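Many introductory courses stop at the sequence. We go one step further.
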Amino acid sequence: MTGSQSLQRIVKQLGWLSSCLLVGFGCSTAPTVPPAAGPTGIWQLMGVNGVAIPAVITSARYEQQIVAEDIVLRANHTYAMFTVERFFTGNVPPAAVADTVYNGGYWNTTNGDLVIGAVDATQSGDTLRIRSSDRGLSVYARQ
């Protein structure tokens, strides 16, 4: 047996021995699945009522073009929402310059239900859905 073959044999034996020790101590070499991520993090708006961003929302008084929106859900249960939007009426095109609106408050989970501010939300993996009476369904992706 050459030196190289002897070394390979020793490495195989050590691998077998270490796996036996792990099993003996109640350890497993099986891959572990990371726990499901909670709602904390940065969420970017992808679409509103099935329309990709930028999306136009029409009401009786005006139209609103949502250019972009991010929500930051912090571990201390506060949130910050930044919306870039333009308002216009009738056939008048939206202003070239968009306004950035800041909104903040608290979020929480109660009995498994996610509430951001006063609005119900649902999280499924890296997708967040918020349904509000003034906008409809907004869908966000975790960043």
